């Protein structure tokens, strides 16, 4: 299995996906209109830059990880080889000064970025649109690209949740992370192995944010309707989505009727039901993250036989390194992390899927807020 | 940087390796540094360049303008101050002139030949016309007698007619060489044929001549253009000044931007369009590029094509984009500056729609001077029935006013009822035992005061009732009254018409209801067949059935056939063609205001048409808006009243006293024709087509279809243009269009055409066809450009909507009741542009590009009067007959019969200075009754009765009394009597008949004020008193009248023998009709007031301070040292019948033909005009005869 997952197969699959999509594009002009809009240039550039820099970082991290592995195996060698990027060689200075070796590269980068910005600012004018008309909102009415993630969140949550609570949690969470991080390793160099979980969490969160922006930019058309890239933005397009609350859905389903779950749609019922569901979600989510944190994917194997012990062993192989870090983590740090992780990293994609795939509006309806 | 590390073994080995170069410390970045530093330098340079030039492309434009303009100024310097003769001596001019002369000479021989031929033909015609017309006139009289007598008398008259036809007259006809004459014998048939042949021949020759002259005229135009282009209005000094200005040109934006702080206008159009306000008339050809081609910049640098408008709307106050739209601040590209950018919502108007800009501020005008396209758009909106469905503020003046009045009446009535109740309550309370004396007093006083209030209210209601009567009189509908369907139309024709109105009558106002009607084959822009409703045939049946079953069904007087030939003459000469057209295709002639009558015989009932021509306003039965039904004779019989209704005394409902609709709501006026004449015209119209047989339409009597028909009529809004029973109070079904042009583009529903519109794919190909007048490559290029143009804008929306309304329903899945209802009107490309222009400019105050403080909102009474007047003038198509503005052409003016100089004298009077000419009180009376027969003192009436009837035929036609006799003989029911029958009030000599429009007092007032305002007259007008004449003055005036100035030759006097050839009004009318001031100016120089008038100029010459007659001074003049012209004015204004008789007796017994002495007299006047006029008058007298017969 693992043999087949190499860069060529990945590339091939990607190419096939792109080709299939390209065949189905009806309206290249529409796609061009969106991509060539001056305010969408950054997001289009990010489509290429983010994968590229991710790839570069990962490549460096993999190289470092190998080096770390090698050096760990030989403590003597580790003492002499300080430079993490490349193994030290005789004749090299043991340490390099910031000036000029780092600064000159940074300066070079500055100059090149300046040139790029010059050209960009000359060739692409500020993306001004029609004069504001208080009687007529433009359609689609889109925020600047960097806010499109926030705007897209409004589709899935209450304005209060999506516009106030979530952003606050995200920002506070980003501020808090240095303090909940108990892993002393992996600072100042690229590594996957030493910060596996942290990287995956950040990567997932970042990707989620990028995906929301891409959806907002390329997919949301007039009326905030879902148009696939390459589909014409038709102002007269109509969709009919009947989003229902989870408790109503259950109460009105045939199963729910059979089980006489009608009380779920009434007030104390639905409040309690939503509370239970959300609490359950937090519980399951926390367990999920805990599992993610401690599992050793490399050791996961198909169960041989069907005993629970065997299944447990197959699903929960211990990862010694993560266990070690976990043991350094205080309960407060752990719970803080779990709260932010479940509230944002898990809740958002889950709600997205509930909303888009299952047309569920809210899972917990209270007089004060809806989730 | 990071190469993947070698395997472990190599790592260990490295310890022994030779010292390696450090990949970081040992590497130099200077190469990179150099390259990026260079790039940075280049980009900084680029940024600086961009700042100076890239972002300021207009600097290049300015430079180019300066260089081209300087070049142009240099090139014209030599011409500066040159007189016309100088230029005419230049070789270029000589060359063009020679070309023109050569072309003219090439055709000259043939033209000479034609001229000679025409001259001989004319001579022959002159010889034959009189005898022919005599014979024809006599024959007509005999024929008339045949028609109106019975039995043996009829046979006798027939024989006489036959004899007349056989009668041979001998005429001296000039021979073909024109030198001799020979006598020829003619019977009537030969006479008629010869006459017609000669006329045909003459016109054929003349048209050949015009054809031959085409090339020379074009060359002459080219030559004259050259002269115009090289005739510089500026002297050398001024041109030098312009050159200096160019040398010190200010290459900036600020120096050329218009900034009006007060209105927040900043326009920088002149940064590129630098020549717009130059004093010279700059044409693209003058601004060719350095390699001598005319490019886009040459067109951009021209001066404003309409400097007059620029003067009225000073750009320093209004800016440019205020009128033209577009983005006045943008300077970088023409796309942005012209607002063609996607995000600029209001792009500059296309050239053809420029006048939409006028509508923004002139939205309340009916006619805006100089905006012809826009005016046409307004005309079409009103006259083609758009306003039947669409409300447009200002266009529904009458209905709005009527609704307002009725609402007021209702409110007052309610108040009165409440008061009455209170009175009753008060009176009762005062009668109760509990009340004290004080209270009783108070209550009774209160009741009394309420009674007073009520009587005041009743008076007010009476006033309003009168007002509502007038307003009801003014309400007109675009289409005919469909309550008359049964009496008017052939039953089987109704569905035929509904099925295909454009097929039956191309160009008709009736739009095609594409959901059920069909279009003629090959009709441009007809929607696809599948757009029609599935039940289209049923819909037609249902509508026809409703109309048929809910129509009046009264028996009309049956009418015998009349004389079609006479009818044709009447039709062509009385003024019908000012509104109606006749003939189809190339032979179409007449106005577009009303229907084409070519095929009226195929659809209508003869009796009805006769009655209609006799008096189109005559309704079958009056409509009571209060009871909401048409009254019947029974309603009147119950109240013991005769079944009589008119606008004068019988306009109220016998049941409830409400004002009735007593007239047909048509703008067609009453021509005061006798019943016989009406019959003749109808006979003529019916002779134009032969009724085909239509499929039977029995279903129209099926009562089951009625409900469906009613629903459909409601749905399609038929009542917007037609009066239909059951729909009298129907509201408009369409969208209000007052501010339609300001609708945001997103709210204009392009439906499934959106994408096509955005991509520039035009299913109707509206601008695809190369323009007819465009020539060669340029047109092709325009064509190509036009085709690619996206039409997702207001212009595109409106144009497509009015061209083919169904286009926005194409491909839509809709319930039938939700489908678009707008029918497809008939539109020419010009009309389409006009209507689009009108709609584009209809933006209201909110959508306007101009601050509303700058709107045209005249505060002075004069301008308001003019605009108010235009609504009425346009409503009744006064401009079909009259010229009201300088430069405006009336419809009748362009008719073929009036193209000769003689014909031109017979046109209806020009009204350009009518307000200055006539007394407003008189004008009011005249407009009320143009026959001037009704409101005269008996004495005056007697006098007028002595005026000759306008034509021998009319004189021969039966007087009302006779008609009654004849009718009783033939058992024909009688039409209502015709007041002022066959009489023209002022100009009896004209064939044109000023019809009776039945204006309400409101409209009369508006019209009079309009004419006074148009001529800038003082309001109110106070009549100048006339000093009585002394005996000496009287004698002198008489002598001047009869000898010096030959007044009595042309002016009507009341003496039939003289008046036969008179072509000017009677002096008896002067006192009442004219203003003395104007009359005085008129006497001095009529040609100046009305160019081309038959009235001779130069009748007086100035001696010191006074004007004396320039003719032979009569003996009485010696010793009279006052102004002769003033004396004549006074004499005229004091003229009375007695004086006129004496004058006639005193005057030489002249015939209308000028005597030798008068010819001499005019020759002595040293002016060519009088002589010309007399020559013209002679031939005109001949023509008069021609037309009359």
Describe the structure.
The complex is a heterodimer of chains A (371) and B (1189). Chain A has 371 residues and is mainly α. Helices cover 63% and strands 0% of the residues of chain A. Chain A has helices at 7-24, 28-36, 41-73, 75-80, 98-123, 148-156, 159-180, 196-219, 246-252, 254-258, 267-294, 308-315, 320-328, 331-358. The longest helix of chain A has 33 residues, at 41-73. The two termini of chain A are 41 Å apart. Chain B is built from 53 helices and 11 strands. In chain B, the strands form 5 sheets. Chain B has a 3-stranded antiparallel beta sheet with strand order 8-7-9. Chain B has a two-stranded antiparallel sheet with strand order 1-2. Residues 1-6, 770-775, 935-941, 947-972 and 1149-1173 of chain B have low confidence and may be disordered. At the A-B interface, helix 3 and helix 5 of A face helix 1, helix 2 and helix 31 of B.
A few lines on this structure:
The complex is a heterodimer of chains A (371) and B (1189). Chain A has 371 residues and is mostly helical.
Keywords:
heterodimer; A: 371 residues; 63% helix; 0% strand; B: 1189 residues; mainly alpha; two-stranded antiparallel ribbon; 11 strands; 50% helix
List the helices and strands and how they pair.
The complex is a heterodimer of chains A (371) and B (1189).
Chain A: H1 7-24, H2 28-36, H3 41-73, H4 75-80, H5 98-123, H6 148-156, H7 159-180, H8 196-219, H9 246-252, H10 254-258, H11 267-294, H12 308-315, H13 320-328, H14 331-358
Chain B: H1 8-13, H2 30-54, H3 57-77, H4 84-89, H5 91-148, H6 151-166, E1 169-174, E2 181-186, H7 188-212, H8 214-230, H9 236-247, E3 258-260, E4 265-267, H10 269-272, H11 296-300, H12 307-312, H13 315-318, H14 321-324, H15 334-337, H16 356-361, H17 372-383, H18 386-389, H19 397-431, H20 437-474, H21 485-488, H22 493-499, H23 501-504, H24 536-549, H25 564-573, E5 581-582, E6 589-590, H26 600-603, H27 606-614, E7 618-624, E8 629-630, H28 633-638, E9 661-663, H29 675-687, H30 705-716, H31 754-759, H32 776-788, H33 794-803, H34 829-841, H35 844-847, H36 861-875, H37 901-904, H38 914-917, H39 920-928, H40 938-946, H41 952-956, H42 960-970, H43 1001-1014, H44 1031-1044, H45 1047-1050, H46 1056-1059, H47 1070-1073, H48 1076-1084, H49 1086-1089, E10 1100-1103, E11 1106-1109, H50 1124-1133, H51 1137-1146, H52 1156-1164, H53 1168-1188
Antiparallel strand pairs in B: 1-2, 3-4, 5-6, 7-8, 7-9, 10-11
């Amino acid at each position: 299995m693992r043999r087949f997952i190499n860069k060529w197969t990945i590339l091939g699959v990607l190419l096939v996906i792109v080709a299939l999509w390209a065949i189905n594009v009806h309206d290249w002009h529409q796609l061009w209109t969106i991509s060539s809009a001056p305010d969408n240039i950054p997001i289009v550039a990010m489509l290429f830059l983010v994968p590229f820099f991710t790839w570069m970082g990962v490549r460096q991290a993999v190289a470092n990880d190998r080096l770390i592995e090698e050096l760990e195996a030989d403590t003597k060698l580790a003492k002499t080889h300080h430079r993490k990027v490349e193994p030290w060689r005789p004749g090299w200075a043991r340490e390099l000064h910031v000036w000029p070796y780092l600064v000159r590269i940074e300066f070079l980068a500055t100059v090149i970025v300046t040139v790029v910005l010059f050209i960009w600012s000359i060739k692409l004018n500020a993306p001004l649109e029609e004069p504001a008309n208080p009687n007529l909102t433009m359609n689609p009415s889109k925020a600047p690209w960097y806010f499109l993630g926030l705007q897209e969140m409004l589709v899935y949550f209450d304005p209060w949740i999506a516009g106030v609570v979530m952003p606050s949690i995200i920002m506070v969470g980003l501020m808090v992370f240095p303090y909940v991080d108990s892993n002393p390793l992996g600072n100042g160099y690229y590594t996957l192995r030493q910060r596996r979980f942290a990287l995956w969490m950040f990567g997932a969160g970042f990707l989620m944010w990028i995906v929301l922006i891409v959806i907002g930019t390329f997919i949301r058309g007039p009326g905030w309707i879902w148009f696939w890239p390459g589909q014409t933005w038709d102002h007269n397009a109509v969709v009919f989505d009947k989003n229902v609350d989870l408790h109503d859905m259950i109460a009105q389903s045939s199963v729910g009727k059979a089980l006489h779950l009608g009380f779920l749609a009434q007030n104390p019922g639905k409040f309690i039901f939503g509370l239970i569901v959300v609490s359950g979600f937090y519980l399951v989510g926390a367990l999920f993250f805990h599992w993610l944190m401690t599992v050793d994917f490399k050791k996961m194997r198909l169960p041989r036989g069907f005993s629970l012990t065997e299944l447990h062993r197959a699903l929960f192989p211990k990862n010694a390194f993560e266990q070690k870090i976990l043991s350094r983590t205080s309960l407060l740090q752990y719970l803080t992390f779990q709260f932010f992780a479940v509230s944002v990293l898990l809740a958002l994609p889950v709600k997205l899927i509930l909303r888009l795939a299952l047309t569920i509006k809210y899972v917990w309806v209270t007089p004060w807020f809806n989730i | 940087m990071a190469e993947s590390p070698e395997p472990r073994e190599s790592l260990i080995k490295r310890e022994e390796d030779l010292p390696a170069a450090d990949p970081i410390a040992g590497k130099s970045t200077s190469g990179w540094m150099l390259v990026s530093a260079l790039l940075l330098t280049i980009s900084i340079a680029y940024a600086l360049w961009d700042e100076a030039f890239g972002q300021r492309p207009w600097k290049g434009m300015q430079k180019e303008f300066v260089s081209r303009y300087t070049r142009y100024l240099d090139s014209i310097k030599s011409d500066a101050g040159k007189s016309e003769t100088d230029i005419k001596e230049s070789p270029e001019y000589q060359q063009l002139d020679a070309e023109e002369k050569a072309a003219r000479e090439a055709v000259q021989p043939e033209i000479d030949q034609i001229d000679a031929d025409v001259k001989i033909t004319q001579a022959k015609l002159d010889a034959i016309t009189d005898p022919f017309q005599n014979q024809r006139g006599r024959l007509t009289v005999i024929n008339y007698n045949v028609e109106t007598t019975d039995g043996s008398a009829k046979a006798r008259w027939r024989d006489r007619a036959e004899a007349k036809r056989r009668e041979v007259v001998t005429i001296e006809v000039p021979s073909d060489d024109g030198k001799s004459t020979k006598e020829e014998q003619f019977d009537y048939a030969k006479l008629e044929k010869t006459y017609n042949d000669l006329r045909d021949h003459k016109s054929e020759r003349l048209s050949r001549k015009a054809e031959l002259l085409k090339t020379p005229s074009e060359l002459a135009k080219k030559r004259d253009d050259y002269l115009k282009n090289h005739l510089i209005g500026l002297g050398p000094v001024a041109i030098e000044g312009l050159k200096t200005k160019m040398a010190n040109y200010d290459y900036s934006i600020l120096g050329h931007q218009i900034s009006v702080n007060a209105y927040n206008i900043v326009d920088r159009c002149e940064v590129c369009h630098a020549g717009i306000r130059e004093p010279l008339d700059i044409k693209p050809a003058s601004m060719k590029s350095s390699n001598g081609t005319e490019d886009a910049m040459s067109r951009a640098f021209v001066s404003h094509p309409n400097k007059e408008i620029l003067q009225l709307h000073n750009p320093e106050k209004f800016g440019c984009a205020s009128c033209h739209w577009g983005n006045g601040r943008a300077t970088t590209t023409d796309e942005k500056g012209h607002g063609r950018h996607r995000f600029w919502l209001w792009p500059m108007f296309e050239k053809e729609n420029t006048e939409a800009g006028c509508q923004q501020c002139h939205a309340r005008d009916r006619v805006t001077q100089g905006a012809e396209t826009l005016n046409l758009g307004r005309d079409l909106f009103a006259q083609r029935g758009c306003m039947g469905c669409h409300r447009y503020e200002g266009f529904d003046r009458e209905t709005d006013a009527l609704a307002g009045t009725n609402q007021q009446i209702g409110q007052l009535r309610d108040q009165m009822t409440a008061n009455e109740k209170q009175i009753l309550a008060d009176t009762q309370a005062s009668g109760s035992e509990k009340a004290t004396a004080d209270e009783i007093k108070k209550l009774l006083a209160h009741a009394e005061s309420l009674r007073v209030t009520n009587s005041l209210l009743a008076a007010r209601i009476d006033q309003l009732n009168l007002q509502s009567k007038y307003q009801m009189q003014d309400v007109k509908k675009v289409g005919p009254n469909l309550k008359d369907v049964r009496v008017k139309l052939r039953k089987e024709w109704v569905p035929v018409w509904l099925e295909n109105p454009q097929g039956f009558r191309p160009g008709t106002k009736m739009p095609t209801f594409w959901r059920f009607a069909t279009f003629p084959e090959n009709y441009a822009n007809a929607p696809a067949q599948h757009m029609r409703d599935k039940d289209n045939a049923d819909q037609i049946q249902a509508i026809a059935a409703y109309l048929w079953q809910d129509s009046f069904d009264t028996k009309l007087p049956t009418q015998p056939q009349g004389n079609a030939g006479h009818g044709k003459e009447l039709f062509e000469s009385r003024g019908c063609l000012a509104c109606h057209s006749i003939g189809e295709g190339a032979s179409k002639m007449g106005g577009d205001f009303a229907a084409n009558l070519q095929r009226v015989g195929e659809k209508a009932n003869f009796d009805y048409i006769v009655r209609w021509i006799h008096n189109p306003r005559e309704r079958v039965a009056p409509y009571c808006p209060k009871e909401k039904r048409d009254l019947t004779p029974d309603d009147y019989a119950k109240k013991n009243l005769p079944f009589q209704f008119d606008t004068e005394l019988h306009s109220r409902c016998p049941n409830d006293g409400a004002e009735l609709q007593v007239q047909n709501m048509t703008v067609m006026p009453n021509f005061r024709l006798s019943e016989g004449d009406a019959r003749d015209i109808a006979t003529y119209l019916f002779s134009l087509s032969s009724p085909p047989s239509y499929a039977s339409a029995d279903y129209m009597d099926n009562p089951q279809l009625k409900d469906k028909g009613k629903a459909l009529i409601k749905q399609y809004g038929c009542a917007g243009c037609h009066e239909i029973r059951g729909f009298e109070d129907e509201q408009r079904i369409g969208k209000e269009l007052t501010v339609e042009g300001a609708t945001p583009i997103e709210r204009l529903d392009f439906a499934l055409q959106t994408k096509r519109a955005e991509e520039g794919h035009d299913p109707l190909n509206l601008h695809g066809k190369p323009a007819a007048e465009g020539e060669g490559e340029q047109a092709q290029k325009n064509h190509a450009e036009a085709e690619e143009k996206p039409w997702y804008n207001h212009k595109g929306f409106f144009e497509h909507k009015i061209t083919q309304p169904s286009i926005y329903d194409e491909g839509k899945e809709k319930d039938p009741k939700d489908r678009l209802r707008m029918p497809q009107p008939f539109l020419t490309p010009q009309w389409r542009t006009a209507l689009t222009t009108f709609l584009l400019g209809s933006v209201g105050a909110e959508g306007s590009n101009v601050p509303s403080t700058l709107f045209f909102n005249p505060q002075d009474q004069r301008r308001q009067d003019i605009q108010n007047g235009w609504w009425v003038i346009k409503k009744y198509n006064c401009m079909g007959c009259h010229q009201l503005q300088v430069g405006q052409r009336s419809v009748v003016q362009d008719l073929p019969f009036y193209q000769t100089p003689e014909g031109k004298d017979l046109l209806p009077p020009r009204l350009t200075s009518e307000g200055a000419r006539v007394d407003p009180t008189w004008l009011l009376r005249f407009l009320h009754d143009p026959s001037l027969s009704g409101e005269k003192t008996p004495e005056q009436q007697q006098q007028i009765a002595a005026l000759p009837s306008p034509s021998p035929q009319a004189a021969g036609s039966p007087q009302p009394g006779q008609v009654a006799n004849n009718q009783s003989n033939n058992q024909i029911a009688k039409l209502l009597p015709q007041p002022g029958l066959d009489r023209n009030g002022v100009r009896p000599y004209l064939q044109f008949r000023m019809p009776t429009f039945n204006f309400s007092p409101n409209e009369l007032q508006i019209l009079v004020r309009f004419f006074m305002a148009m001529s800038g007259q003082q309001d109110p007008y106070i009549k100048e008193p006339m000093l009585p004449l002394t005996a000496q003055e009287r004698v002198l005036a008489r002598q001047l009248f009869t000898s010096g100035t030959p007044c009595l030759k042309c002016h009507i006097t009341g003496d039939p023998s003289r008046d036969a050839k008179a072509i000017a009004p009677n002096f008896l009318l002067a006192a009442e009709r004219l203003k003395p001031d104007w009359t005085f100016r008129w006497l001095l120089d009529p040609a100046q007031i009305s160019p081309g008038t038959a009235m001779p100029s130069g009748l007086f010459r100035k001696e010191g301070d006074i004007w004396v007659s320039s003719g032979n001074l009569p003996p009485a003049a010696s010793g009279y040292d006052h102004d002769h012209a003033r004396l004549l004015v006074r004499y005229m204004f004091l003229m009375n019948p007695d004086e006129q008789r004496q004058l006639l007796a005193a005057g030489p017994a002249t015939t209308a033909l000028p005597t030798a002495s008068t010819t001499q007299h005019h020759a002595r006047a040293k002016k060519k005009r009088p002589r010309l006029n007399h020559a013209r008058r002679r031939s005109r007298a001949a023509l008069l005869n021609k037309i009359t017969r």
